[in-house]
TrEMBL record:
It comes from the Bacteria. The keyword Transmembrane helix applies. This is PepSY domain-containing protein. The lineage of its organism: Bacteria, Pseudomonadati, Bacteroidota, Flavobacteriia, Flavobacteriales. The chain crosses the membrane at residues 20-44, 157-178. It comes from Flagellimonas hadalis. Keywords: Membrane, Transmembrane, Transmembrane helix.
Length: 196
């Protein structure tokens, strides 16, 4: 009798886990799709032959003593942005990425995905490119909605929390959906052996 009750409890637990797994999957299908596709593409960004992320160019020297001051490089980058890309683009910086070992510095802007690479020592333009991977990162972590709605990271925080908890639930329920039937068969086998 105890073993029958145990089997019923296992079956009930399995049904609950199946329902949670199915419901979570159905409700968050679109989000899982975007996360998986954008994550897959982002994994290849450095191997995209410059399509997603401009290649880091080689400057003349990695010795920082020979480099121009960062404010001078910044002035050059803004000039290049307005003269070579578009005079209407915002010069507000997202970050300055110094690649000492390559002798180059990258200027990445907030309101568009333009990247300007300069030689750290001469200020010569090494590359002007689009960082499509930055757009994909914003889609991947939900921060693209914060950017468009001006919610200062709130949507990203909620989105990543919900998706992280959902993925954890998926992992637990998926494991149980695989392991539960094996456990039930083992319990049933023991019951048959005890009865015979």
């Amino acid at each position: 009798m105890y073993r029958m009750d145990k089997r019923k409890a296992q079956a009930k637990t399995l049904r609950v886990f199946r329902k949670v797994h199915r419901t979570t999957g159905a409700l968050l299908f679109v989000f899982f799709f975007f996360i998986s596709v954008s994550g897959l593409i982002l994994g290849w960004k450095k191997n995209s032959n410059g399509k997603l992320l401009p290649k880091t160019q080689q400057g003349t020297t990695s010795n920082l003593k020979d480099w121009l001051p960062v404010d001078s490089l910044h002035t050059i980058a803004i000039g290049v942005l307005h003269n070579n890309v578009s005079p209407g683009l915002s010069p507000e910086l997202d970050r300055i990425d110094i690649r000492k070992e390559k002798g180059s510095v990258k200027f990445v802007f907030v309101d568009h995905y333009t990247e300007i690479q300069l030689d750290g020592a001469t200020g010569k333009v090494l590359s002007i490119g689009q960082r499509r991977s930055d757009f994909l990162e914003k889609v991947h972590d939900g921060s693209i909605l914060d950017r468009h709605l001006g919610t200062d990271g709130v949507i990203k925080l909620v989105y990543t929390s919900v998706m992280g908890i959902s993925l954890l639930l998926f992992t637990i329920t998926g494991f149980w959906l695989w392991h539960g039937p094996k456990r039930m068969r083992k319990t049933a086998k023991r019951s048959v052996q005890v009865m015979s």
